[in-house]
Design brief:
mainly alpha
Length: about 210
Amino acid sequence: MNDKLKTVQDDLAFLRGLAEGGTERAGLGVAGGALYGSAGLLYGVQCLVYVAQEHGLVRLGGLGNLILAWLPTVIFLILMTIVIVVERRKPKGGVTHRAINAAFAGAGLANLALIIVFAVAAVKNQDFRYWLYHPAVVFVLQGAVWYAVFALRKRAWMLVVSLGWLAVGVAMGLLVDRAGLYLLVATFGLFAFMAAPGFFMMRQAMSRTVDLGA
């Protein structure tokens, strides 16, 4: 009788794990974590080169700056397309998994809308500083998304990431007139709160997959 009861409890625990997306500790999975981390790495390197250029360490010229401005986005879009194609063939995760993915997708859509808002404001007022507020707002938005992730997963490091995004976003908003510091803060934020968590989630998901397959 006790053995049967234990078997039933194990089955219920397993089903609960599926419902809550227990196979993904952060909800993004291997591909999602890799994509998020790659975005932080790509844009972090981009900002780092801008920092070096701001201090006269490198000179890219017109063509070089044009390539630097667009190359990270082109690479990211290619990676995102690959992830979408690969993930579409896989079974969907639990409720929490889908909620987290929806939160990040919603933030992505909001980012597209914000690009239009700040780009139009910058052109209309002929002031590039309007555009500089866009990354600051996006960082704050990432902080809000990560707080939602923390609320769903209850892991302390996710709260740290959320607070980090919020702090960096506010700092950037206050530093739009100081390009050097603005870029340094942005670089730090992208590496610390995007690249690092992304690859950490990827590694967690990979180890989890290995454990389940063992």
